[in-house]
Amino acid sequence: MSVAEKCETALGWRSDRSAWVSRGVRVLLCVGAVLFFTGPLLTIFSGAFDDNPDPTRLSVVPDNPSLDNFAAAGENRIWHYLGNSLIIAGGALLLQLSVSVFAAYALARKKFRGQAIVLLAVLTTMMLPEEVIAIPLSLVIGDLPVLGISLKGTLLGVILPLGAWGFSIFVMTEFMKEIPVEIEEAATVDGAGELRIFAQIILPLCKPALGVVAVFGFNMIWEQYLLPLIVATDPSDYTLTVALLSLRSDDQVGPGIVLAGALLALVPSLLVYLALQKSFLRGITTGAIKG
């Protein structure tokens, strides 16, 4: 058996006369998977630019291409809600990356009593559903401990609770543990201080993990619904995610306006992934190889 035939057999391709049947089935399955996953996205895109979309009919190409839906969405303050979401996502992601990096450095590169308990507590926060902590979180935001101030009705009230995420801390911790200690020891011998080692050695080596954490962290923050709803005291405090559900329940708002808002909600996540694609894929690949 030739090398080509061995490769075809390993991949599941048949090399006999009935190979076209096997390949035909696989092509149909691939096409079906593509349609299954891209169908809703194409429908959102088509409906957002369609002057009068029919919610009961699947359409890939707009029948009456127009920007009227976006104009109507603007009249319903969709751009204001988008601005709220962008401010929250940007601020919370920056805070989350900072907390994750410093917490991971302490857990991965330092030794202290109770280290395993701290890491276990971080992982425990990932197991608690939002509904369980909704009421306690609302009480804390309404009366911030020590300071005694209320963050209700402010964007900061949404940003601060999202500033620490167990998943980000765990990923960064496990990645930093894989960095050889010898690199840090060599830098210390050369006279580098701890802050310089952290900024010029540890962080650059963690770029793949930062890409993974940034992509997942942004999506987690962007998809938040319960927390912005708890903090909001007025409809003007809504994020785009909360506003879309509010528009969907309004009988005066057509489906095209909702789809235009949904398309706007998809764009930031897509842009973040495209911007961090190389680091994200490198981080996933590195984790798979180390595992």
Automatic annotation (TrEMBL):
Xref: SUPFAM superfamilies: MetI-like (SSF161098)
Report which superkingdom the organism of origin falls in: Bacteria
Keyword Transport listed? The answer is yes
Query: Which Pfam families does the entry link to?
Result: BPD_transp_1
Could you tell me which InterPro entries the record lists for this protein? MetI-like, MetI-like_sf
Q: Where in the cell is it found?
A: Cell membrane
Q: Where this protein primarily resides, as one coarse class? A: membrane
Topology of this chain in the membrane: Multi-pass membrane protein
Indicate yes or no for the key word Coiled coil. no
TM ranges are 27-49, 86-108, 117-141, 153-176, 197-222, 253-276
Domain ABC transmembrane type-1 residue range list: 82-276
What does the UniProt keyword field contain? Cell membrane, Membrane, Transmembrane, Transmembrane helix, Transport
Give the record's family classification: Belongs to the binding-protein-dependent transport system permease family.
What name is this protein filed under? Answer: Carbohydrate ABC transporter permease
